[in-house]
Design a protein that fits this description.
By secondary structure, this protein is mainly beta. It is built from one helix and six strands, in the order ββαββββ. A three-stranded antiparallel β-sheet has the order 1-2-3, with no helix packed on it. The longest helix is centred in the middle third of the chain and has 10 residues. It is globular. The two termini are 13 Å apart. The mean pLDDT is 83.
């Protein structure tokens, strides 16, 4: 599939890389006409954010349970299934 799970010190993020904007050039031109876009705009590929852990170091998909993600971090480990997957 085209799903990817990434992490940083603040959370775990799940993206679907198969999602594409319809017309990104037209969307940007409309924002520029309105005085600029929103700084830090959420990309359409971002499906889920898990921010319940501190300093996440590893992210793995469970090999037998679809959509199940396990993370290890400074604050412990988390196992979860995102509600929208």
């Amino acid at each position: 599939e085209s799903m990817i799970a990434v992490s940083d010190d603040h959370g775990t993020y799940i993206y679907d890389l198969s999602i594409e904007e319809d017309d990104p050039d037209n969307h940007r031109n409309e924002e520029e006409a309105d005085g600029g876009g929103v700084e830090g705009e959420i990309p359409p590929q971002l499906l889920f954010v898990h921010s319940g852990s501190e300093m996440t170091k590893e992210v793995h998909w469970h090999p037998q349970i679809p959509s199940c993600v396990a993370t290890t971090s400074f604050s412990g480990f988390s196992v979860f299934i995102p509600s929208n997957l």
